Amino acid sequence: MAENFPYLPPLDPPAPERVSVWRWAFRLLRWSTYIAALISIVLLLHKSPPPPVVTSPQAAASAEQKVAQVEQSVSQGQPATLRLDQTELNSYLASRLDMAPQPSTGLTGGGPGAPTASDVEQARSSVRDVKVALDGDQVHAYVVFDVHGKDMTLDLVGKLGAADGYLKFEPVSGHIGSMPIPQSALESAVRQLMESPENREKLKLPPDITDLHIENGELVTTYK
Fold it and tell me: Using an 8 Å Cβ cutoff, are 79 and 73 in contact?
């Protein structure tokens, strides 16, 4: 005669198998984070291509002549307008900006909190290249700078203007290396940069400049 055995419910899956699934998911998440961070670093260090701008001694001389003519008109109390196209602007900047690292002279500033000669030289030597492209009413600034021995690029596209005697910049887009900067973060960074007390005076325009903007691919500066 068959014996009656009590009904036993099926056993739950083994605990070690459940633990292994969570461990696998955690490892996948962790390695995904590592891969995302690696991709971000690669994009940051990957230099974006510069805008197609050219320079020439003739364009630099033309820009110098235009600047001299405007300065003469302003000194005589006459209004004047300075117009520089893309080639003239880049040639003028190339002739005025020294991108080569300069040896420290050991000189110090004039008082507490004043920038020393070493500070100025270090900031200047960190910038390796500057190119400016003018398109319609927008400016594209391309800067190559050194960060701990590595060249990185900063691309900013926006609109230049003047407001209450200060330079104004409205960002449209930006990249660090090949990584795009979110628009909200870009606008916040530019706003903080331009409104900070230490940078406010650096953005102050000469008192005889009444307007500055990009028009038809030219930098237009109006003097009273």
Answer: yes
